[in-house]
Design a protein that fits this description.
By secondary structure, the protein is of the alpha+beta class. It has one domain. The chain has 9 helices and 6 strands, in the order βαααβαααβββαααβ. A 6-stranded mixed β-sheet has the order 2-1-6-3-5-4. A hairpin with a 5-residue loop joins β4 and β5. The longest helix is centred in the first third of the chain and has 23 residues.
Amino acid sequence: MGLDIYVGSLTRYYSGDWENVVQRYAREQGVAYQVVRPGMANEEKPDPEQVAHLVEAWRQALGRIAREQLDLELDWLDESETPYFTDKPAWDAYGALLLWAAYDENPGLERPLRMVEDFSDDPAFRASSAPGSGTRYPSLLCNVEMWLPIEQTVVFEWIDPAGRKMTFGSTGGLLRELEELNERTWEADDEALDKARRENVDPDATLEECAKFALGLMLGLTRDAVAHDLPMKLDY
């Protein structure tokens, strides 16, 4: 199962009116390519107008909960014509980034040289993502699947517009955590991170190489999300 990162309106996302990088490449090369996601019954795209109404109702409900329970005001422009941004870290690189963050705050544990088979079973990740851990990287390590355009750092559970329960975070919080992780470990400038993002990660790459690639990718997309006031979502 692959992993893409999507930045854009939720109306566009749930309407299926976007392409991941492989879809775009296949279209440009005239190659047939089909995305099959869990629970996907057919290839027919939902009606954008119906999706827009559903997303707006969801936003209104979430806004009420955010005001009452989190003391937050949620407000962003969510339209089908909004531009979007996307890239594909794959689970290996994304998992390497999470482990890099987890081992940064668990220096007493021995960090693996290469990517592990299941990052969620890694002792450092388990320690940092456990309830009440006090991790400095909650937007990264607390199983967040969607980051909303919020400046404050916040992590909470609710349902997405499709009715699936998931953990939400904030793009502002994620951006600060990615920048802090870089400052605490690599101290790489934007040019170096952009270069790392654009280099292919070899199958035998180290955990550090995979993590640095994913950091460059995630940092670029998170900055797009913050600059354009857009949600950001894992797609798999």
